[in-house]
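Attaching the record inline, Q. Sequence:
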Amino acid sequence: METSFALTGKGYVIVAADTTAARSIVKMKVDEDKIKELGTHLLMAYSGEPGDTVQFAEYVERNIRLYQIRNLYPLRPPAAASWIRRSLAQSLRSRSPYSVNLLLGGYDKSEDKPNLYWIDYLGSVVEVPFAAHGYGSYFALSLLDRYHDPEAPLEEGLATLRRCIDEVAKRLVVSPSNYKVKVVDKDGVREVEI
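Structure, as predicted:
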């Protein structure tokens, strides 16, 4: 019953993911961080099969860090999205494909603009102004479609995200209780309370 949301605004990307780790009908953990910081200006929220998600997220994190060490500069968000898509597509054609869905958010310092990418387990990637994965997406996408403003300040973006979280809590039978929210902008990545 995983849920993750992300949206862009004027100079920022907000990424939120529930903190519940569950298997079937059993909650294993309620403080799982499903948002991986891939760099100073790059975040990735992941959901899917528990083993696959953690292994793939760590694989991506290590390889993006390796790229930065070898080349002395970090991958920009569009390049990171392309590399992640290629890695998922390659695993899909192997005997052990990863079953992960991702939301990749970053701030491109060279172009001074936020980027958000929706990536699914089939290796599809799309740059979007807002996105969601999981059961909560059924309720949140219509709210994001109606209330998202690409020129909104951070406070308004957080209010839109709060609307999505409240709607999921109200309408989803097994809704997650806690969310972790992170923002990436020109100053880097930080966690915010909602």
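The radius of gyration is 16 Å. Residues 62 and 189 are 18 Å apart (CA to CA).

More tomorrow.
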